[in-house]
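Q: What does the assembly look like in three dimensions?
Context provided by user:
Components: two
Sequences:
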Amino acid sequence: MSRTPLPYNPKVLDLFRNPKNLGKMEDATVTAVAGNPSCGDMVTFYLKISEQEIIEKASFESYGCAANIATSSVVTEMVKGLSLKSAWEDLTWKKVTEAVGGLPSIKFHCGVLAVGALKRAIRMYFEKKGTAPSWLPQEHTFEEKQALEEEELARRLTKRLKTEEEK
Amino acid sequence: MVENVRELLKLHEGIKHEVYLDNENSSMVPQEVLDAMLPYYNKKAYGNPTLTHKPGWEAFTAIMESSQKISNSIGAKILEEITFTPGETEANNLALMGAAFANPTKGKKIVISEIEPINVMNVATDLMKKYGYTTTKVPVNPDGIVDLEKLKEAVDKETVLVSIAAVNNEIGAVQPLKEAIDIVKDKNPRTIFHTDASDAYGRIPFNVQNLKVDMATLSSYKIMGPRGIGALYIREGVNVEKILEGQIGTQKLWPGIENTPLIVGFTKASELAFNNFDANVNRMRTLRDKLVDGVFAKMTDIKFNGPKGDRRAPDNANISFRRCEGEALTIELSLHGVYVSSGSACSRRLLQPSHVLVAIGRRYSEAHGSILMKVTRYHTEEDITYVLDVLPISVERIRKIVGSTGVD
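A: Here is the predicted structure of the complete assembly.
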């Protein structure tokens, strides 16, 4: 059972109660998912990207806690109107955590996951297009690595559960 | 950080109705219990019970009378079989470590179930890692009932200790404790059998003589007594050594000055639970059934966790809401004045949800979306009606945030 005190600040609670840009986007250019419901933390980002590679709008859905909902909500607001390059370079989990007024340390990974999903969406856009700009590093960023690590953990947990069921 | 919490509390201003259902993790103390305790702080018996003056002798008398009442409530033979500890955690530590260390010739194997309370699990792990004991965890069936065949296999001539909770704290599963004890004693009469009875006490008949159990843990707050006090029953003749050093008072297994007001409060709570035992149990069961039936009548995509009917403690309701993350739901409910806890792991970097729900075969996502609620005899029909109004709205809002994400 969860027993850690969670002193969420009022901004996190406000975003939890009134999240911005919530919901599926039917005309999204790219959709990216990070996390896994097995970990109790999963986010989907929808981006509408113009031909000039500007993020026209962003929305999200979150299977996660208040911190995940709040950070995802601010990510959608922060990237709106940015070029893909600026969005990639400007958004880090630290900035996102600051934008929600800070998070308890055990909740940092929620912000990391939100940024991980955004970066994954940007990467997907260029993969679909078949070209990669020079500013896009080949190596995964910290946030993307964390998302992968969390998903790998979820796979291991689920696999273990299935093996136990088969026994 | 405390500033943040003050702000969070402000958001709760103006709540019309409050229903506290997180009695797993702490509980309110009824006025009549407080009234029984207060004189012991400043009117009488505030002395040290081992010392030779009137306030000390008063304290000694109060503690002995309390021991007698607590031992009567579980059918113990003599009051010396009760040791007051600062709570369930300490009682479980004393039981497992104290019995393991006092009986080195009985072997170094410990058997518990897969769904023991965390404090029993952690003591067993500690004994394994630091002191070279081995721990076997016996599996449970999908209702959370311990597999007695597997228990039989797990016990051998090296087994010093078995610990199985009489009632599981998360899903209310009532274990076939008598059968389990008989099986263990048949296999090895020297094995010591401990049960954490915190969730059985005051909820189902629990008699240490009938069960022939060697040790049993009781918790005060789980029967709406004050926190910071519990007890360990140790049957006369069972070897247990103390695990803390200090000045010994009236109790040879727990050093330090006895906390008379808390002991008196615990005893008062016990009297209130047992004076009208059947009526109290029926009241809890009626309220719990109204809650669970109401949830199932109003909502879909949900799953009931644990057994139904007589195999379940009368106060316990545990329900998984699919497509709904549990921690988010506890916050949403709190903003509506309904206080519960969740089996979600979202507050841990470990990402592991409730081990109990996983052990009964729930998917991880179902464990993350679970809510534990425990009713008490102090709740009213109106309280339950209010919860049934608020819960569907709250789950609906969280499910809207989830959308199509996280559906597995």
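Follow-up: Residues 249 and 258 of chain B are 7 Å apart (CA to CA).
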